[in-house]
Design brief:
With 223 residues, the chain is an all-alpha fold. The protein has one domain (7-19, 66-216). It is 61% helix and 0% strand. The protein has helices at residues 7-10, 12-18, 21-24, 68-76, 78-85, 88-103, 108-118, 120-136, 148-156, 158-165, 168-183, 187-195, 200-216. α6 packs across α8 (120-136).
């Protein structure tokens, strides 16, 4: 069965966090540079160390797909798709864990955090594919037309947004903050709580997305 990615749920966390970016841009100082990422249950095996690193990728071949989303991902994200499809842990993360968590009543972002804790290696495999699809196939793979803020976030700020979304830890940090903000008033406190124990590199990726939103998506996102 072919992997299928739809972005409606995957995009849900972005705008909530964007809305608070004015107050969140200084969070780098809250990180603990040498401490482990609190979102992971166990360290990934040594053979997973390079999962998130970008290898020099071969060009994608033209696709004969009639489904616009499949065609776009075939032609733009074939390498990320192949990496995900080659390892069953990737499908276990987003085809098994995420849907089951959502069926049990969890929000998308809550489920990202939970499923990352159970299968971080699968999330690391899935994140680059999800990022590529979000950035390069936003319109084709959205169930509804994306709003101006989402378009700006994933297109105008595609560099930092894509880098964060392709990184398992940055994606989990974003979802942690969003899930917390959904159930607890006080976005700044959620940010402080979720940042604790994160690597400095993770927080820097997250900060870069917020800086871009503030600079380039201010009007689109009503910042």
């Amino acid at each position: 069965m072919r992997l299928h990615l739809r972005l409606l749920a995957a995009l849900a966390g972005s705008v909530v966090v964007v809305s608070g970016c004015n107050s969140l841009l200084g969070i780098t100082d809250l990180s603990a540079p040498d401490s482990p990422d609190a979102s992971a249950d166990t360290a990934a095996p040594a053979d997973d160390a390079g999962v998130e690193a970008e290898a020099e990728a071969a060009a994608c071949a033209p696709s004969r797909e009639t489904n616009l989303c499949f065609k776009c991902t075939d032609e733009s994200c074939c390498n990320e798709y192949a990496t995900c499809a080659a390892d069953p842990r990737c499908a276990m993360f987003y085809k098994d864990c995420l849907p089951q968590c959502k069926a049990d009543g969890g929000s998308f972002d809550t489920c990202v955090v939970q499923c990352d804790s159970r299968n971080g290696a699968g999330h690391a495999l899935f994140a680059p594919y999800n990022a590529c699809t979000s950035v390069k196939c936003l319109t084709e793979c959205s169930d509804i037309p994306p709003d101006e803020c989402t378009v700006c976030s994933f297109q105008t700020c595609s560099g930092p947004t894509g880098a964060c979304k392709a990184d398992r830890d940055c994606t989990t940090l974003t979802s942690c903050i969003t899930a917390c903000a959904e159930r607890t008033p006080g976005l700044e406190k959620c940010t402080t709580d979720c940042v604790q124990g994160r690597r400095a590199e993770t927080v820097a990726l997250y900060d870069a997305t917020l800086a871009c939103y503030r600079q380039k998506c201010k009007a689109a996102c009503n910042l």
